[in-house]
Amino acid sequence: MSNLTDISYVKAVLSKNGFSFSKALGQNFLINPSVCPKMAELCGCNDNIGVIEIGPGAGVLTNELAKKAYKVVAIELDKRLLPVLEETLAEHDNVKVINADAMKLDIRKLITEEFNGHQVVICANLPYYITSPIIMRLLEERLPVESLTVMVQKEAAERICAEPGTRESGAISAAVNYYSHPELLFKVSKGSFLPAPKVDSAVIKLNILKKPPVATDDEKLFFRVVKAAFSQRRKTVLNSLSSGLSLPKAYVSEVLENAGIKQTARAEELKMQEFAAITNILKNNRAE
Question: What was the pLDDT predicted at 129?
């Protein structure tokens, strides 16, 4: 049985297959023996649950997921890792590795074809450079999955899990809270990876909501409002929305007043209900 948290073993397998790390792909493989079992446990997988993993690397997390799950489908972009994974995951007959770009792959179709009606969760150690795009893609598509358990840069984790209306919140916080209930599970030191990155990481879990926590008359407009509000964090929402949505300041001032929001408020002070109120007033005014 291969020990995928043994640095010398991992290096030997990678070397044998002529693999070298790619900075462009944000490749940092987990070698801390306690992290992956914990992720596999907390993501909620069991022998009735299917798991999609994005970016399996050398297969350290994949190995732990395969011990618990009904089936694991790992999506790996780097062709050079296919022979590595074939060796490191050889003992598991419930793992399928797909060479594809998770940002382009039809994941809904994959779920239908691979999991035979079983419930599905997503669990992954995400490369830092695609953290927000991949999380938002997975959420926006409203895939039939129960949750996303992902490891990301610690600072990103704190922003993603921040409650809207708090200083730490940002556009990503509001977007994530629209689709899910986020929770920060645990932090992971940079020394847990090979090669070691410059910053620490954290594991978060996004529990998918059946319906959004606020009602909006126009979902696309809601996200435009959120993005515009946070586009100039140092400025008031009045200025940010006027600039970001190309609307007269006097008009935005009136909208904020009707929504019960202070003219001096900044984006991080607004809760989900207030973003929804702004959206609905703008939408209704358009329809008049």
Answer: 78
C-alpha distance from residue 255 to each of 19, 57, 89 (Å): 57, 49, 57
Give the other-Cβ count within 10 Å of 189's Cβ: 13
**What's this model's pTM, rounded to 2 decimal places?**
0.90
Q: Are 194 and 31 in contact (CB under 8 A)?
A: yes
pLDDT at 131 over 80: yes
Residue 256: its pLDDT value, please?
A: 97
Other beta carbons less than 10 A from residue 37's beta carbon: 16
Q: Is the dihedral of CA 183, 185, 186, 188 positive or negative?
A: negative
Q: Which residues contact 166 (CB under 8 A, 6 or more apart)?
A: 268
Domains and CATH numbers, the chain: 7-208 (3.40.50.150), 219-287 (1.10.8.100)
pLDDT for 9 beyond 90 = no
Instruction: Map 97-152 to HEC letters.
Output: EEECCCCCCCHHHHHHHHCCCCEEEEEEECCHHHHHHHHHHHHHCCCCCCEEEEEE
Q: What are phi and psi of 47, to 5 degrees?
A: -75, 0
The SS3 call for residue 88 is helix
> What one-character-per-residue DSSP string does 170-214 give?
-HHHHHHHHHEEEEEEEEE-GGGEES--SS-EEEEEEEE-SS-SS
